[in-house]
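Support request, please re-run this one:
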Amino acid sequence: MKIQVEHIDAFSSLPNKGNPAGVVLNGDDYTEAEMLKIAATVGFNETAFVCQSEIADFQFRYFTPGHEMNLCGHGTIGAVYSLYRHNRFAAKKFTIETKAGVLPIQATVEKEQLVVTMQQTTPKFRKFNGSTALLAKGLGLTETAIDSRYPIVYGNTGIWTLVVPIKELASFQQMVPNNQQFPEILTEIPTTSIHPFCFETVHSDNDLHARHFSSPYSGTVEDPVTGTASGVLGAYYQTYVKKQTSPQTIFVEQGIEMNRDGQVVVHVTGDDQLQIAISGTAVYVDTIVINL
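Re-run finished. Output below.
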């Protein structure tokens, strides 16, 4: 059985930048086991499968090479862009069913470029009670690299990640993660990823610089440009760093150390209860044909 998987790069308008996502538009044709096998064969951090839904306009399912995810930012951007290429939706606003809930999507063309905005779930945070020294070591750093002015916390706007404040931009080039150690460091949520960030940026028009290191259960090491984790970072910024009257827009750069420079725009609204959305662009790269 030959399967067509579109390679879409999300959070960039340039091919081979941003975050590569596989997109399968006929997801209903495959079982869950087949979806996982397709994602493993493609080998991207995530492959998105577009399926029919009884409660939304589309259902999106997301698979890493190792397991299914509740939500994936770059997979969503990539799938919406693929649907747009094939004239599969007419309205600017529609909804998608995910395992994180039914989420609104907005797709608009700005300067001949499709910009996709996806709502995320209500932010949640949990305290990190583990060893800061072991955490730093797991990233290939010393404990002094961590910015103690701000808390290390687990955050969730659809999936959990650990947000780690770092003092200097230079530390990001030095990071060598030991993903296999993550579960023993992240004892509260052993299956989660780690998302270090700092306030120094490579590009002056951005607010935050980040990297994203995968859970060892994902079958990958690093995600170039992460939409859901950037949403968490936006909520973290409003909650712990610079609380101000919403709306607030935060520009996050990521992928630079992997030579896959990308940008995520995070929209923060609400004061008592934060609402998070992210925006990004995408570009078609290629169609991959695999045999299952």
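The helical segments are 32-42, 73-85, 132-138, 170-174, 182-185, 227-241. The chain has six helices and 17 strands.
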